[in-house]
Design goal:
The chain is mostly helical and 185 residues long. Helix content is 64%, strand content 5%. The protein is globular and about 40 Å long.
């Protein structure tokens, strides 16, 4: 996985503790290889896979297999947006069967590769965020209290918005727990 893609995921999940970011980095660095929960448990020095499950829950991240899938897909979309290489080319470079990657994209996002690349990296990151659970303690501590003009200025300056277009083109309101980030690369 591209280090920049890992950095993007860490940037859109500001509630993560250092251990949560370490889980993302370890899993992201091995996203293109066969990586199992026991492998990550050993790398992180955890006592067992149940401790990893509790850590993921505490951090508000999806379960291990789903998280690994999202990191893979985000990496592939990021690579596509940087180089415009097809998923088949990305698969061949990684020594994998293209059909396996196409199936993984559909399994994780519910979209085909063509739909996903049309939707872009920002949509992919937003969809990942919808699968995360922001801890209530973070929301109580970090919830911004801004007026509408300040929000409009933030959207214009930083691309932060409360609404995202779904692949079908319809607006999709997200809950107050979620922040949607429009990423510009």
């Amino acid at each position: 996985m591209h280090e920049s893609a890992i950095a993007l995921v860490c940037d859109i999940t500001p509630w993560l503790s250092n251990s949560g970011k370490l889980i993302l980095e370890k899993l992201g660095s091995r996203a293109d290889t066969l990586c199992t929960a026991p492998d990550i448990v050993n790398e992180l020095g955890l006592s067992n896979r149940f401790e990893l499950v509790r850590s993921l829950q505490r951090e508000g991240l999806p379960q291990f297999d789903e998280l690994r899938g999202w990191l893979q897909v985000i990496s592939w979309v990021y690579a596509f947006e940087i180089s415009r290489h097809s998923l088949s080319a990305i698969a061949r470079r990684a020594g994998k069967q293209p059909s396996a990657l196409y199936r993984r994209v559909k399994q994780v996002t519910g979209l085909t590769w063509k739909q996903l690349t049309t939707s872009g990296l920002a949509w992919t990151m937003n969809a990942f965020l919808e699968r995360c659970r922001v801890p209530k303690s973070y929301l109580a501590r970090e919830r911004p209290r801004v007026s509408a003009p300040a929000t409009d200025a933030a959207i214009a300056t930083f691309g932060v918005a409360e609404t995202v277009l779904s692949p079908s083109g319809k607006n999709s309101k997200l809950s107050d727990q979620r922040r949607v980030y429009a990423l510009a690369i």
